[in-house]
Amino acid sequence: MPVPDVMFCAQQIHVPPELPDIMKQFTKAAIRTQPRDVLQWSYGYFYALSHGEPLPVKERVEMPVATQKNDTGLTPGLLKILHKQLSEKGNVELPDLQRKWKNLCLPMAQLHNLLRLDNFSDGVEWMKFFALGCSALGGSLQSSMKHACQILTNDPEGGAARIPYDTFAFLYSYLAGLDEEITGESVESFLKSLKENVSRKEYMVGLADFSTVQKKP
């Protein structure tokens, strides 16, 4: 009869030397991200950690943009996490998007509603889905583009929130094309005016440039 494994003293317990730091970083990440379902989010966290993927962690604690009357679940911080995790792929497989979405504890019904706004039968073109996420946050085209600039920019928080003109033009044209009340001529005219306002040296668009062109008669 085999002798059962028995712990006789604490010295027999092997604790990997890296474990305390891993748990410390995990705890900080959970506090910053404030997941609705800690167990589901933890699975996503350690899955990403073990596969060398961007972690599902917010840069800072944020207040949800949703109100009690309109609880979308999605926030700028969560959309930024998804962008970090999926943008490099260009076209995203639907199961991968669903898994990342679920691990952020976001409602699947909202994901399905966003996907219905376009035909993603051959995979999900990430920047189009990103634009749809911004529209869920913003409501209006102007507000959606503001969220897009603030999420994509490399400028410090509270700065100009600049992004490449080509990126801005793609997102703006795509979202405007989903609005039946916005004509192609008005989109072309707006982007032409915007292009004239941006710096030829940097070719970047910031919130100030966007607001200036919006105010022009």
UniProtKB/TrEMBL annotation:
> What broad class describes the main subcellular location of this protein?
other
> Does this UniProt record's set of keywords contain Ion transport?
no
Q: Does the keyword Metal-binding apply?
A: no
The record ties this protein, via InterPro entries, to: ROP_DD
Q: Where does the record say this protein resides?
A: Cell projection, Cilium, Flagellum
Keyword terms of this UniProt record: Cell projection, Cilium, Flagellum
As for family, the record states: Belongs to the ropporin family.
- The name under which this protein is listed is Ropporin-1-like protein
- Organism field: Phrynosoma platyrhinos
Lineage, please?
Answer: Eukaryota, Metazoa, Chordata, Craniata, Vertebrata
